Amino acid sequence: MIAVCNANFFRAIKYLLIIAQLFDIISIKNQGGIQMRIAVCDDQHFFVDEIKNKIESYLNDKNIPFDIDTFTDGLTLIGSYKYIHKYDIIFLDVEMPCFSGEDVAKEFKNEEYKPLIIFTTSHSEFAKKGYRYNAYDFLDKSDINLELKNILDNSIKDTVLKHKEEIIEINGIAVKVKNIIYLIADGKNVDIYITGNIIKTIRTPLKFFEKHEAFEDFIKINRNTIVNYDYIKTFDHNKIKMNNGINFDVSRTQNEDIKEKIFKIGVKRREIH
Q: Does the 28-164 domain belong in CATH 3.40.225.10?
């Protein structure tokens, strides 16, 4: 067992070094929209495949974009989390050689972006121990079909809420996304209009916000303006009225596309909630 653990350890260290060297050229997948980033970690390959297939089926039925990465050891999961991208939800086996699920969970306790950890186990006595590591929930391996749907319902809803609370930092200026009402491009700058009649000007192209995953529920209504779906009061013909009383002209060529996006966001919200 010691030899196996050492071999896994050195493989993981080699993996981390390679990732660190490539870090500058790695691009995070699917930057065009918020999606669930899920990891499944278990030393039993058949269980990894089983739960991955069930999660994929659930998310496809809900029409929720997602990425799922699978791991059979905790060290590689830690490396991926720290150097590739942050996972929203992690299904983590409690009992694994070398690095147990508890050992892996410790590594996430001090992370700024904490994943929702769902311990998977065949032994219910591990459930109480898991809460020491802020476990979000527990999945009984012997009864996946009964429990998995409820766990996914709750964890995905909470992940969506967490994304809406996200604070982004652009050029040293921190902004809470959910408080942004709209953004207007002004030359090479963007004026960000925030609740409380606050305006922040950032030297960043508008396209940055169009592609940033935290702004998935924002809608580009003309060449210079992006508005937050949550603050739209009415959309009538070629005008959008915001909750703060501001009116915007809508590009005639984009009118149908805007209607479609508003409709899709509404449908997605109803499906999630």
A: no
